[in-house]
Amino acid sequence: MTAYLGDKPDAPPGTMAILTAFVVATVILVAVGVSRVRDARQAARGELLPEVSYRHTRRLFLVIGIVLGGALVARALAVPPTFGEFGYYRGAAVAAAMNHTPRHIGNEACGDCHPDELALHDKDAHATVPCEDCHGPGAEHADKPEDVHPLKPKTKQFCLICHQVLSARPGAFPQIAWRDHYKFVGVKDPGTECIACHSPHEPLFMDRDIRTARLHPLIQRCRDCHQGGMDEKTARPANHPAVFECNYCHGKIVKDAATRKHAGIQCTTCHLFTKVSDFAGRIIRDADPRFCLLCHRRTAFRDPKVRPLIDWPGHLAEVKATGKDAEKRCIDCHQNRIHVVPSAEEVSP
Amino acid sequence: MNYVFPNEVNVAWTVMIVLYPYITGLVAGAFIVSSLYHVFGRAELKPVARFSLASAFVFLLFAPLPLLMHLGRPDRNFNIMVTPNFSSAMAGFGYIYSTYLLLVILEIWFVMRGDFIARAKGKGLAALICRTILLFDLHEDDASRRADHKISRFLAGLGIPLACLLHGYVGFLFGSLKANPWWSTALMFVIFIFSAIVSGISVLIFHYFVVSKINHWKVDEACVRSMGKYLWGFLIVAVSLELLEILSIAYKQTEEWEILHRLIAEKLFIPYVVLQFGTFSLVPFIFLAATALFKLRTRVAHALIWTASLMLLIQVLLMRWNVVIGGQLLSKSMRGFASYLPGVWEKEGLITAAVIFTAPFIILYFFHRLVSLFPNATKAVDTDAAPSTTE
Amino acid sequence: MSEQRKLSRREAMRMLAAGGGGLLLVHCGPIKPPAGQKSDYDWTKHQWAYAIDTTKCIGCNACMRACRAENNVPKGVYRTWVERYQIDAEDHVYVDSATNENFVFAPSSVRAVKAFFVPKMCNHCEKSVCNQVCPVGAAYHTKDGAVLVDHGRCIGCAYCVQACPYGSRFINPELHMADKCTWCYHRITKGLLPACVQSCPREARIFGDLADPKSKLSVILKQNRYRVLKPEMGTHPRCFYLGLDREVV
Predict the structure, then answer these.
(1) Chain C residues near residue B77 by CB distance under 8 angstroms
(2) B72: which chain C residues are within 8 Å (Cβ-Cβ)?
(3) Min Cα–Cα distance to chain A from B82, Å
(4) Is the N end or the C end of chain B the one with fewer CB atoms within 10 Å?
(5) Tens digits of per-residue pLDDT, B154-187?
(6) Do A78 and B151 touch (CB under 8 A)?
(7) B200/B317 Cα distance (integer angstroms)
């Protein structure tokens, strides 16, 4: 590849100069030649060559010579000192190009002062999102932390920049039709912001880093291929490409889940799946209580009629959970509302 | 569907870049007429020989102005002569233009030296100017006049390829750009040269008639007829080349044809198809054919030639517009068009263009006041009162 | 006949030749430059290149915002941008970019059957047309593969803008000179990534060193099928597109 690399392209470098010189030289030679032939013929015929004097042109050509000479000297002096150092350009330009101050510092630099936020961030769903994508360039803030403050976006509009449903987005990427989402999670006030439930550094309160979670065959949703949107309940035609469904391997659990309180919720809502390749991804079962609370926490903006709401951590006091019980997670007591706990062989067929 | 790359929404080359090849085209054309007399000995063109040379000169003086108006950093304009990158057609501008300007100045000096000397012997500012031009050497005799004649013939001959280069490099500048399918063609160099000659002859004819009318001079019949014939001939070549180019694109229908077809049929339909070809090429062609092939009454022939020259001035301007602006309306996304309307008062606007275009004519007037460009002009005879005296 | 000695043609020619020769001697070319100054970054040790995985881009335009902030790019011109392609059931193709105030793609009314995003930028071609057509030597190639503009020399003629087949160049409305993506040359020569690459939350933009066969970029190029934009132009771009659709120009 680098065979082509160069400051001068392959086009003949002196094209214009050579062409011009050629044309000019030809004309001069032709003109002079014709003139000499004509004079020779006249002389041969015995005619007296009429006298021609160029003396009156001396001053003119002297002035032109001085002007041209001066121009060429001026030109030579005007060429910048580093021109031609590396190629047909000013060598100093390279140093100038290198000399700007970077404005983005990168996550590691943010973590020097904000290690806790970075640790949370690196474990959760936004691990691949750079800090500066939401907070803006950080160099000025890193220089003068007290004087320059980065952005702290808070509105739904900002989150939707990435998470808005767009047909051009890969189907596997989490896209939220926010009105439907609010209906699903029981939020009745449309002015509620996303961060009222989802901490930006820990949006899903994952109980482990999904990048090191177990591998799982690819789970596809309709939208992965049907970018224009597809009703998940539509029946598949006979020649539909093969897609994994949970009940192919986990039939017992799926059948059981359909009889429980959480029937109708998709498996992947809690069993968070991230596509890693065209064949597999990583999956976790998010059992962090704060994940359950994303749907079940009682707040002013939530409609209690949609699903049972609890106060947290007030709920622990309500059920008189003390001591070791107080450290339990939701599923430790409420597994029966979701589905049976499978045996070891049943989890991985 | 109209998608334009985000950086192409605003057109980079404005009406100034339409004006620049137009003006250098006038220069090239006027110089060719002058050379037809000085080199090829077309004696019937003698009445306009000096006028065409002076026209070439004044237009050449103003040719860099549109470029200076356009440059983002006009203060650095000499970079093009200090470090010209000769793989770029545009780098030729500095040296080709300066050489050509020098040549035209020298040509005028040698051709009109006698007139300068005559005027220098008088009194007043005009005489002082002439003495300065002559570098205070007023000597002349037969020998020096023969020398002047020889040199001016040589320069006029040299000037023909230089004029072709001065205008042709602009054509090459456009034609060599593979990125733009409207511009990229090997014919562009030649098309520009021939349409330049058409515009140059047209401006001479047009201006000659106007000047003669204002001063009540007799229009030289043989001269005008000859120029009309040359104009007709060059028009045929220029339009044939332009048509050849577009027919070739339309026949081959490579991938770019999808968008070029839309460019011609939608965006440029009026300026290109209807105006440039349909009106301002066809009608002058008919007029000039009539005057060249048939014996018409003097008044009629003159009216037709004058109208044809005016229309061809517009045709060549339209051609420059359709090439320069048309090529930029077409987005490199091959999916849509930008739009462009020149502003009126801005740096690269219509007022600036009008000033740059009319200024040469004003300078030409003062040139004529200094040294007559029509030394042999005679007062027109009223053709109704006396029998016409055609030569 | 006067006493003045008349200059014959031969003598005139001799004078011209002498004068011309003298001029040539004076015009000996540019003054030899002093030794250039460089930092300890060695540009002969790298060959930078860029890969774009169009299957990963979600059109968040974080790259556009980061580039604008990093390089002070004025409004209305773009060093990088993202195109959205939507193809409906009748095979009509709709293309748009989010060039609005905050670079956000809005949902569109097109009933797309197939749709995707394509990030675009300067391709830093190996045989760049822009360098060829710059009349003053203000457009150049660094030895490590970046195509840059010398803002100390550019006259703003916009010939390079016309010559670029990809629409990557523009006239900076504040500097009145040609400008374009520089691969954040001021960052990559310090071991950092370009702002757009660093800001992409999806790793759709990959930057790396072709001279290092173990770099992530080299490995990706060896393991994937990729294309360049407008290969028929013969520009040999250094931006490689994985998963490039036929509709992308």
Answers:
(1) 155
(2) 154-158, 171, 175-178
(3) 5
(4) C
(5) 899 889 999 999 999 999 999 999 999 999 999 9
(6) no
(7) 12
Looking at residue B236, its pLDDT comes to 96
B295 Rama class: left (phi>0) / alpha (psi -120 to 50) / beta: beta
What is the pLDDT at residue C12?
56
Question: Which residue does chain A place closest to B136, by CA atoms?
Answer: A59
CB atoms A55 and C182 under 8 Å = no
For residue A221, pLDDT beyond 90: no
Q: Are the Cβ atoms of B91 and A16 closer than 8 angstroms?
A: yes
Instruction: Say if CB B72 and CB C176 are below 8 A apart.
Output: yes
Among B72, B82, B91, the residue with its CB nearest the CB of C156 is B72
- B387 in a domain, yes or no? no
Q: What sign does the dihedral B64-B69-B73-B74 (CA atoms) show?
A: positive
Overall residue count recorded for chain B in this entry: 391
Distance of CA C182 to the CA centre of its chain: 7
> How many domains does chain B divide into?
1
Domain that holds residue B17: 6-370
Q: Tell me, what's the pLDDT at A45? A: 84
At C32, the pLDDT band (50, 70, 90 cuts) reads very low
Q: A87 to chain C: nearest residue by CA? A: C140
Res. B78: pLDDT tops 70: yes
pLDDT for residue C22 is more than 50: no
With respect to residue B388, please indicate whether it lies within any of the assigned structural domains.
no
Residue of A nearest to B90 (CA): A16
Distance between CA B276 and CA B312 in Å, rounded?
Answer: 9
Residue B312 belongs to domain with CATH number: 1.20.1630.10
Residue B379 pLDDT: 84
B interface test, pick of A28, A56, A61, A89 with most B CB neighbours within 10 Å: A56
| Residues of B whose CB is below 8 A from C93 | 1, 335
What per-residue confidence (pLDDT) applies to A49? 72
Q: Which domains does chain A have, with CATH numbers?
A: 2-98 (no CATH), 101-152 (1.10.287), 154-346 (no CATH)
Q: What is the ipTM of this complex?
A: 0.91
